[in-house]
Write a structure and sequence with these properties.
single chain, six-stranded mixed beta sheet, alpha/beta
Length: 202
């Protein structure tokens, strides 16, 4: 199911302005990106295969709290194989937020994940775009701690303009995903408010 909606054509221009927030799910191959997407979409574990292009889903997410607010997210889950990573920037253009999924057990590839995360957030068009870093597979005994992941991914060295949140999660059972999306939504709304204020000042 991981490549059922796949396509090799990158998005060449900004997407039409839907009310849904445009969120791109990135990360190395086998980090659990598509598992995250379909857990959010169907609220169940869906067996996936490596994504050869992208998967896309529009999902309404409850924001919790007493107000029972919801937000619509338009997710783009993009393949993480090395040959597909140059296409990432085509999908992040005009993104409201980035979800970067990291395998907490795969310590050997954390450096590679760090390189790709810093590369995509440094692009001029992604300056200031909020990033939710999902520390996936935290349920496994040999997973890295959040402190270790924050240090190894050098999250403190991301641009000062880039708001980020590191969220422990287990995509298979969905643990942590709701909380992570709530944090991402808060960061997106804060950024929109700031951009509106800047426009007024001009």
């Amino acid at each position: 199911m991981g490549n059922g909606l796949s396509d090799h054509r990158p998005l060449l221009s900004c997407l039409p302005s839907f009310q849904a927030l445009h969120i791109v799910i990135l990360g190395l191959d086998c980090a659990g990106k598509t598992t995250v997407l379909y857990r959010l979409r169907f609220n169940e574990f869906v067996n996936t295969v490596p994504t050869k292009g992208f998967n896309t889903e529009k999902i309404k997410v409850s924001l919790g709290g007493s107000s029972r607010r919801t937000a619509s997210f338009h997710f783009w889950d993009v393949g993480g194989q090395e040959k597909l990573r140059p296409l990432w920037r085509s999908y992040t253009r005009c993104a409201d937020g980035i979800v970067f999924v990291v395998d907490s057990v795969d310590a050997e590839r954390i450096e590679e994940a760090k390189t790709e995360l810093h590369k995509i957030t440094r692009l001029a068009e992604n300056q200031g775009v909020p990033v939710l870093v999902v520390a996936n597979k935290q349920d496994l005994r040999n997973s890295l701690s959040l402190a270790e992941m924050e240090s190894m991914l050098a999250l403190g060295e991301l641009s000062a303009a880039t708001p980020w949140h590191l969220q422990p999660a287990c995509a298979i059972i969905g643990e942590g995903l709701q909380e992570g999306l709530e944090k991402l939504h808060v960061m997106i709304m804060k950024r929109r408010k700031m951009l509106r204020q800047q426009k007024r000042k001009r």
